[in-house]
Amino acid sequence: MVAILPDVETMIAVLYFGLFAMSFDFISGYTGYLSFGHAAFYGAGAYFVVLASNGKIPFVATGTSFVFLLVLAGLVAVVLALLIGAVSFRLSGVYFAMITLGFSQVLYVFVRGWDYAASNPRDGPAVLERTEPFSVGVPGVDSLNLAIGQLAGDSVEGLLGFLNFGTTEVSYYMIGLVVLVCYFAMQRIIHSPFGRVLVAIRENEERAEAVGYNTFWYKLGAFAVSAFFAAVAGGLFAGFQRSVSPESTFYFLVTGDALLASIIGGFGTLAGPLYGWLFDESVTEFLSKTGEGGGLLPYLREHLGDATMTTELWNGLTVGQAIDTFLNGHAELYIGVIFVLFVLFVPNGLLGTVRDRLGGPVGKQVAARLRGDDR
Amino acid sequence: MIESTLANLVVMAGFVDALGQFLRPGNLAAVFVDGLAKAAIYVMIAGGLTLIFGLMGVLNFAHGSMTMIGAYLGGLIMIGLVGGGTGFGANLLFFFVALAATFALLAGLGGVVEVGLIRRLYDRPPVYQILLTFGLTLILDELVRIAVLFYGMQPTSDWQSALGTKPNALAASVDLGIVSVSGLSLFEIAFGAATVAGLWAFLTRTRYGMIIRAGSEDAEMTEALGIDVRRVFTVVFALGAGVAGAAGTLLMWDPAWGASVPLAADTLLPAFVVVIIGGLGTFRGTVVAAVIVGMTDATMTWWFVNEIDFAGLPEMTIFLILVVMLILRPQGLFGVEEVGGH
Questions:
Q1: Is some CB atom of chain A closer than 8 A to the CB atom of B305?
Q2: Which tens digits make up the pLDDT trace of B253-297?
Q3: Spatial contact of B129 and A330, defined as CB atoms under 8 Å apart
Q4: Smallest Cα distance from A263 to chain B, Å
Q5: Fewer CB within 10 Å, N- or C-terminus of chain B?
């Protein structure tokens, strides 16, 4: 069957990485400070969860409940963010982007050579000590916990009499629950007076300062909040995958992915990066290889006749070869093209553009129109 | 207690020993030459970046990709030209032909990118230029990956013939009295020095160089003098891309780098570090910073390979220098605050 919609497994990745992209947007989209080393916090969260469940973090037992681990990982990232931010926020613009990039690369190279974390640090650690899966729910109340995980996890049967969920669906809803809570928390902060100051800093930092705000502390605070949620996202990633690698956590291209998601979804719209990453993953999956839920490639192979497939296009290159060459696992190319087109022609991103058209946040506008309010 | 003191003493003794080893003239000279060779590479990969930033205020994320493309192009041209094994002189001549061709092709690409894409963004906040060039790296890297797979250049051994075009003299070591160094290191040093001299002469001794410097000092005033700064932007972007391509051609033979798609990121980050340490947009700063980073890198590599077992540290020191530099002197060694207006 040709899948157009992404499968549940992909959607789980959309959720946790979407949360990371949102946390990136929280600092970069709202204050205008491009945190190019944000992967440091994502990685810190992911590594914290794996190391804690291997008993390698002092005073943290291997069996500590996952929700506690997420909060602890977040707090570790807050400390890290305060250290990095205290130094970095003396700079602005390109310099800020570069110093944060520098810090995250220092951590990346360090983790890649740190044999305390894993016997082969280049490949990264996996959860070995802790055999039971990570679970999301109320700590201490077993009946209110549901386990997540790629292979191991809980399945639910007969909920409300007719709902059945497999292990992947349960992981999807439980990770989604955490992401939703984090989203509402960040949204609450953005819409508070504190968040207004952040926007003021983005629009005109000198004026914000002149009005009497000590912008340094606001920026540092926002950085810490953002790092907290980035680490939660990393923790969710580690909890679901049960293994992490330096490349998938601390590497600067991880921040690059969050940047892609933010720009495509809408820079400075909190929910935008989630949609951006959904878009990104959908394109990737649609164009990915056969057997990985790919949509276009198997479809074309099935439905184009042999005659078409062997037609020569140019210089001995047949249609079949061309399809294989340009579609087989090269989604990155099209993502790049889409990204450049967005930067050039849709600078406000998906959600930002929709909001501009509607004249306000989608939920409010749609509700108002449904009610028939006079506007 | 006693044990730990003893252990400390042993460690100290080891350290003193190692220091003695390090300070022996032969080792010092080897590290010095190695550092110069590394500095030559750093200045090559960072030179174009600093030119572009200095005049246009665009931090070109695609710079690494252009270096990477240069490595592949240089290799392909060499394979085409050399064919079988020829003598040192002929190979070196072919190398300069390949270099010139790569420079021209990459400069053309740079010009097209500036006119077609970046020009649309000058009236937007500078972050959009970073974003655009970041997207460009994704496209370029993936296109190269497709080409490499399609033509089966790597990982099969076809590509080995590109490495085979290296003149034998460069692979052999040269005896310089107290130290013997590889011919490639010497070649890299000569090449880097020639590039620096060439760019410096272009910037300070030609009329066009003068216009470029004027444009980077004060674009509006230059415009008012009747010079089309937009066109100068195109030339500078093309020049920067060309230098990146030339750097790639140099890296193609170097066993520590070589042509591969990840070379884009591997060169981009050190290039950023060098450019920022030197002061964004100052060519002189970039040269000094390249020497500092190259020397530190060589020294650290010696220490951590020979004495202390933590292979990641030399790589880490580059970024540590960046962080320390930004803390102590954010504008870089020779930078002026607020370069490029942001």
A1: no
A2: 777 787 888 888 889 988 988 988 888 778 888 999 999 999 988
A3: no
A4: 9
A5: N
